[in-house]
Amino acid sequence: MVDIYFIKPTDGKYEKAINLGSVINITGGYSGDPCIAHDESHIIFPSVRTAGANNGDLFISFNEKGTWTEPVNMGKLINTQANEYGPFFSPASCRSDVSSRNWYFFIAIYSKYF
User: What angle do CA 76, 53, 97 make, to 5 degrees?
Assistant: First the structure.
């Protein structure tokens, strides 16, 4: 099982790693490769869970006063029949880049603007 943790730097040092809990991390599934927005307002991560329409879909969860909301599948506009993974943000352009891999090991990197 793979869990997602958050480590925040304070005064040039890292605090203790915090497990994001059972809302983000699920038993019997996979959640990994997270990308947390620079302002910590939301997290996007690939996951294999029952709410996912495909093998590895991207989910988004919002930070509401220090508590992560139930992850929501980002839908067909973002997710394909392949496995989506590796999201990362470019704060200057409000762009999120995503990698996608199907069973033939073709990798496509595409960008979505938010």
Answer: 45
